[in-house]
From TrEMBL, chains A, B:
GO terms for molecular function: acyltransferase activity. It comes from the Bacteria. The keyword Acyltransferase applies. This is GNAT family N-acetyltransferase. Its EC number is 2.3.-.-. It comes from Plantactinospora siamensis. PROSITE patterns: GNAT.
């Protein structure tokens, strides 16, 4: 298992991961179209965004998006924001998510980030335990407004 | 009162706002140094980041940072992430924060963002009521890990 930056050929597998999710199912379709292609290209071209996949011998079994947010707080430190963390349903319980998050945290430390942060839907109890085990603190309310 | 992108000359006033905050006081100093200058320049140069100030006749009385995160979810939509929302203590209760957030939400809608999101420390009860009034839903746990 390696973690690496996604390439265009990974897009169908990543969309499958997003759509397979209980909450993602209502929001997305697994069919690559021009809009998804453009979004992929935008992420890929942005030096502060990385779409990462967990690649098990050529098969994408996990994904996440890393965003490095520059800021003034904490003496001008960047913070890592993690979005869209998914592990393929039939590969859960194999510590893939744990290894992927540890990889992300190492990458953020190497880059000099002062903090890693993410939000997780309050209905995802398993995810909360998972992040608390990794050392995250549920110190904040995560507020969302659909536009 | 206008809301506009911050310029280098606003940096001392913005740092004052960050340091005056109850939680920011432990983390930052109001003295502009090279590190803060570099962080300001990094935000300013990034087309997906904007440092915004509330300018009342030439005086900075509020600030916030807007980050537009590209993504695949929600059919490849960007989301607006809001950080570092501050209103000068002696100017609270004048709906400056409300007007600033409404301005941010309009800007995100104009850009085509599908969502606005932020996290707020669980100790900030006033802030929670403020965001709920604006239509935000406290649907997520906000997880943080200091690096």
């Amino acid at each position: 298992m390696i973690f690496r930056t996604a390439v265009r050929a990974d897009l169908p597998a990543i969309l499958e991961l997003l759509v397979a999710d209980q909450l993602g199912r209502a929001r997305d379709r697994a069919v690559v179209d021009e809009t998804y292609e453009q979004a992929f290209a935008a992420i890929d071209a942005d030096p502060r965004n990385e779409l990462i996949v967990g690649d098990d011998d050529g098969t994408v079994v996990a994904c996440m998006q890393l965003t490095y947010i520059p800021g003034l707080s904490r003496h001008g430190a960047e913070r890592l924001q993690v979005e869209a963390v998914r592990v393929r349903a039939d590969r859960r319980g194999q510590r893939i998510g744990e290894r992927m998050m540890a990889w992300a945290i190492d990458r953020a430390r190497d880059r000099g980030c002062a903090m890693a942060q993410l939000t997780t839907d309050k209905s995802r109890a398993d995810a909360h335990r998972f992040y608390l085990r990794l050392g995250f603190v549920a110190s904040h309310e995560g507020m969302k407004l659909a536009l």
